[in-house]
């Protein structure tokens, strides 16, 4: 016969379930916290490893140097081992925030390089498109095409306060200190590149962001100030926007107007183009379904039909 449980037993049952549920929840929370802590430690360790000096950096740098002088530009002759020694001397005997551009002077002295005029390509916030553009017009030279750029591109390095070797566990961010070892090298490399620029030079800027010309960027803070109007004939600015937009800045709007004013005040001759057809074609190759790509294709087809008539 089915009997109703007494109120007292019902309360005890509820309390029992509540206690069991509470214990289960507590166990779940404890397990979750433990898993979270382990994952956090693992991620933190991975983050430190990613931010430390690039593993096998000596083999990478020296190997790239030999590749450059053997295959990329065999007309040059450099002592790759000596370049590495000067680089190591500049970095490992300094704390991670105390490597100035002056510390790299000896390294740059053993790897001088002169580039032909009319081939200099500068850029800011347009790295991917810049590489595509340089690949199509192979006469262009970017900083990454120089020996120092080729050797150290995409690498991280820093020394240690208490040791004379590289720190492979963690390095500070660029923004953490002005005399960051990576920033100082690229600052000096950018200065050298700009100082030797001659003839007609090209600058690629991103019109889809605010401050396409940024005074704090490497171009705005270093390269622009080291261009010589006596050596540079024209500064050809090309403003490119993303196919999807937004269209924020142009030759007649935003920070690019400030750039033009600076060039004029320093005696540079300049040109500025908002919609370079070659740059648009390169973007359309990557994303051909954009409506602007169809417009570009129709325009090219129309020009072809006119020229064939």
TrEMBL record:
Task: Tell me if Transmembrane helix is a UniProt keyword of this record.
Answer: no
Q: Name one Pfam family in it.
A: Rib_hydrolayse
| One GO CC annotation | plasma membrane
What EC number(s) does this enzyme carry? 3.2.2.6
Source organism superkingdom? Eukaryota
In its UniProt record, a GO molecular function of this protein is:
transferase activity
Give the family this protein belongs to, as stated in its UniProt record. Answer: Belongs to the ADP-ribosyl cyclase family.
Q: Which PANTHER family match?
A: ADP-RIBOSYL CYCLASE, ADP-RIBOSYL CYCLASE_CYCLIC ADP-RIBOSE HYDROLASE
Q: What is this protein called?
A: ADP-ribosyl cyclase/cyclic ADP-ribose hydrolase
Q: Which organism is it from?
A: Stegastes partitus
GN (gene name): LOC103375397
